[in-house]
Amino acid sequence: MPHSPPLLQDLLVLLLASVPIAFIFHRLRLPTIVGFMITGVLIGPHSLGLIKDVHAIEVLAEIGVALLLFTIGLEFSLRRMLEMGRLVLIGGGLQVILTTLLVTGLAYLLGRPLNEAVFFGFLFALSSTAIVLKSYIDRAEIDAPHGRACVGILLFQDLSIVPMMLMVPILSGREGSAGKIALTLGIAVAVIGVIVFATRTIVPYLLYHIVRLRSPEVFIISVVLMSLGTSWLTLQAGLSLALGAFIAGIVLSESEYSHQIVADILPFRDVFNSLFFMSIGMLLSLSALWADVLIVLAWVGALTVGKALLVLAVMRLLGYSLRVSTTTALGLAQIGEFSFILTKAGLPEGLLSEPDYQRFLAASILSMIAAPFLIKAAPRIGYALQSVFARGSLLEPSVTGFNAQEPDLRGHVIIIGYGLNGRNLARVLRRTGVPYLVMELNAEAVREANERGERIVYGDATRKEVLHHIGLEQARIIVLAISDPVATRHTVFLARQMNPDIHIIVRTRYMAEITELRELGADEVIPEEFETSIEIFSRVLREFGIGRHVIQRQIAAIRNEGYNLLRMPSLPVVDIGEISDALKSAATETLSVEPDSTAVGKTIGELKLRKKTGVTIIAITRDGHTEINPGPETRIQAEDVLVLLGGEEQIDQAIGEINGVPEAV
What we know:
CATH architecture of the largest domain: Up-down Bundle
Largest sheet: 6 strands, parallel
Shape: elongated
Oligomer: single chain
C-alpha cells in the first residue's frame, strides 16, 4: 500500500486538529488565534510529536503571513499611509529606539556582555504584526485611532528588521563595514521603489487585460503571483516576506479591482494564516518551559509591562489621549514573529545561548497567546485609567494651540470625527448656515482644519467633561462619524445620559451593531454596508433607465423594511386593522415640475388629480417657501416642487398626468 507524502499527512493532522479547536473557541467567544497556537503546542514536536516536517509547515506559514499582510494592505491606501508618516517615523522610531536602549541597559546591568545586551534589545523591540492586525480587523478597529497608531508603529518595526539583521555579524565580532550596511540599505530602498513603480504602472495594465479574459482562474493565479512575487523580491533585498506583500497591497488598494482581489485571496489567506499561528505554537517546548517557568513568567511580565509603558509614553508625546495611548500600548505589548528570524540568525553567532533561546521562545509565545486577550481588555483598561487620572491631571493635558472654550452655541450640531463623512457634513452645514462644532482626536487634522477656519476642537468624546465643554447639554444633534466601535458605544451612552432630548445619529460599519447602539440611546444608526447595497441597486436601476422617482421610492421602501426588520424582535406585535393597511399602502413622493410640463399654468382644481388618479397634492415648495395643503385655486408654476400623497401606482399615474405622459393602458 503506498504511503502518503509526509507534508500531506502533516497538513491533514493540522486541519483535523484546527477545526474542533476553532469551533470550541468561537463558541466560547475566545480569539481563535489563541486556539491555533495552543493546537500547535499540543501537536508539535515538543509535545505529542504528530508533525513530522516542521520546516515545511513553517514555509507554508510564511506564505500565510504574506497573504495576510497583502490583504491588509489592500484595505489601506497609499494616501493614508503617507498621512501616517508622523506616526511611522516619529512614533515607530521612538518606540524601537527607546525599547532597544532600555532593554540593552537592563541586560548590561544584569551582567550580560554589551553585544548580547544590544541583541536582546533588538528582540524585545518588535511586536507581532500578524496577531495585532488580525485582532483589530476581527474587532473592526483597524481604522480607530489606536488601530492606525499600531499600524504606523508596526510598519516601522518591520522596516527595522533590515538594519537589525545587518548588525548581527557586527555584534558577533565578524567583519562588517559601514559601506556594506549602506549598500544593503540602498538595495532595499531601490527594491521597494521598483515594487511601488510596478504596482502603480505595469500591474494595472496587466490586470486590465487579464480581467478582459473573463477567466477567474487566471485572475486568481495572477493576484497570488503578484503577492508572493513582491514578497520574494523584498526577501532577496534583505527585507521580510510580509513587508513586500504589504507594500504591494497598499499600492493596489487604489485599483478598481481591489475588492475582487480581496474576495479571491481571503480563502487562501485564512487557511495559510491558521498554519502560521499553529507553527508558532510548535516552537514551544513544554519541558523547557516547566524547567524555567519562574524565569519565563518574569520575562513575560517585564516584557508586557515595560513595553506597554514605553509605547504609552511615546503616544502621549505624540499628543494622543490617555485612553488611546493605553489601548495602543496594550496592543503592542508582545514579541513579534520577526524576532524569531533574528533569534535564528543570532543563535549560531553566539549572541544567544541555548537556554536563553528556549526561555525567549517560551516568553515570546506566551506573550503572543496573551496578546488577543490584552487587546480585548485594552479599551476597558483605557477608560478606567482615563476616569482615574484624566480629570484635571497632567496625564491628560490639552493639545498645544487649541483652546476648546465652551462655544456660544444653542441648538447646534456636534460632529464627532473629521474623516470623510465628518468633513462632508461640516461642509454642508456651513453652506446652509446650520451652527455646528467638530471634535476630532487627531491633533494634526485639528491643527490643519483650524488653519482653514474650520470650527473644530481637539478632544476625546468618550470623556464626560469634554462633552460638557462643547455644550452637549444645549446641542440639538450629535453625529458620530468615527471608526472606533468601542468609543462609539461609550459616547452614545454618555450623550444620552447627559442630554435625554438630544438626537443621536451614528454611522457604523455593520448592521449587526444597530440593535446594541439603539439600546444604548442612538436615535438613528446608519450602517455603511446597508447603505452601500442601496447605492449599488440604485445605480443598476439607473442604468436600465428607471425613473428617478421610482428609484427613490424603492430606496425608501428598502430602508424602511431593512431597518424595521432589525428592530422587530424588540417591538411588540400590534394589530391596528384596516387603518394600518391603509397607512402601509400610502406613499409620498416629491416631483419637480418641468418647464415643458402640461401642468404649468393650471390650477390644482383644473388638474383634477384626485379625481383622475386618487392622488392629493399636500404641499408645494416654491422659491424656498413651502405651502402646506394648498387650495384648488393654487396655480402650478415651472420648477415647483410638489409633494404627492397616494398609493404607489396612483402616484405613478399622477406623475404621468403632470408631466404630460399618457397613462398606460
